[in-house]
Design brief:
single chain, 358 residues, alpha/beta, 12 helices, 42% helix, binds nicotinamide-adenine-dinucleotide
Amino acid sequence: MNYNIALIKGDGIGPEIVSSAVRVLEKIGERFGHTFNFTDYLMGGIAIDTCGNPLPQETIDGCRAADSVLLGAVGGPKWDKNPAALRPEKGLLGIRSALGLYTNLRPAKLYSALSSECPLRADIVEKGFDLMIVRELTGGIYFGERGRRDGKYGPEAYDTEAYSVMEIERIARVAFETAKKRGGRLMSIDKANVLETSRLWREIMHRIGEEEYPEVVLSDMLVDNAAMQLVRCPSQFDVIVTSNMFGDILSDEASQITGSIGLLPSASLGDGKCGLYEPIHGSAPDIAGQDKANPIATILSAAMMLRYSFGLAKEADAIEAAVDSVLEAGLRTADIIGTSDKAPLGCTAMTDAILAAI
Ligand code: NAD
C-alpha cells in the first residue's frame, strides 16, 4: 500500500526527531512492503520566520490532503515575546481545529527496564501500568463563553463549560472502540456530584455502553478520586475517557509517573482516518541541534499512526517491540540514563539501534 504523510518538523529538536521517525517508517515500509511518501510543511517558529505566519494556508491544505500528519514540536525562546497572532503555538491549535481533531489519545506505560525512573513507591512500580487516556479535545470549558463582568462582589471573571450530546456521544464511541481493542475496561472520569455537564456525560457514556458496547466494562470515577488513584494504584486503569480540562490535567499527571517525557507519544483524531501524531514533549531548545534528543516518543507516535490511521497493527507492534528491546538491552539517551554507568547514545545512534532491532 501507498501512504502520503505530511511532515511538520517544527522548531528546536523537531527536525532531528522527525527525521528519526521517517527512517523507522522507511524501514517498516521495506520490511512489510508499503510505500510511505513524505512531504514537508512549515509550522511554528520556522513558519513565522519564513512566511510571517505560524500556520501557512499551504500547510493546512497539505495536511488535509495527506493520509496523516507527523509533527515534531514547535516553539522556542526566539518567539516567546511575539504578539499572540505570531506565536508558534497558534499553529498547533490552528492545525488541530483545521483538521477537526476532537480526540486526543495519550498512552502512559511504565517500561520495566526504566522502572527506576518512576517516582512512585516500589510496591506500586512492581505492579506496572499501561493505560490510555482518551481526552475530548475541542469542547468544554476551554472553548466556552468567557469574559469579565460586574458580579456580586464587584468585578469578576468567568468561564463556562458546555458539552452537547453529540460531542459526548462521539468521544464515547472513540473510547469504547479503544477499550475494545485493549483490555475491554473503560473508566469514565467526571465530576457528576457537582457539574451538570458531568451528569449529562455520565448518562450518555452509560447509554452508549449499554446499547452499543455491552462487551466493554464501563465504570465511573470522580476526577478528584482519579487524581489520587493515578498515583496510588495506576495498574487498575486500562482506558480512561474524560473531558477536555480533566484530560489535560490527568494526562500530564499520568505522563509524569512513567518517569520520562522523552518516551511518550500521542495521537489527535477526528472523524476521518487522518490524524495528527506527535510526541508529548516540546521542542527542547536547550539541546536542539546537538544530536542529544531522545527520538523514541516521535518513533512511537509514528507507530500510533500506523495503528490508528492506517490499520497496520503488525507494523506498529514491530516498532513497539523494537523500542522495548533496545530499552531492555540497556541502551539509553541522556534523558533516561538514570544511574547507568554506560555512555548515553545520541538521537542518531538510538535510531540506528531501533532500526537494527526492527
Ligand atoms: P520541553 O518538553 O521542550 O523540555 C523540557 C525538558 O525536557 C528540557 O530539559 C528538554 O531538554 C527535555 N526534553 C524534552 N524532550 C526531550 C527529548 N525528546 N529528549 C531529551 N530531552 C527532552 O518543554 P519546555 O522547555 O517547557 O518548552 C520548550 C518549548 O517547547 C517552548 O517554546 C514550548 O512552548 C514548546 N512546547 C511545544 C510543544 C508542542 O509543540 N507540542 C509542547 C510543549 C512545549
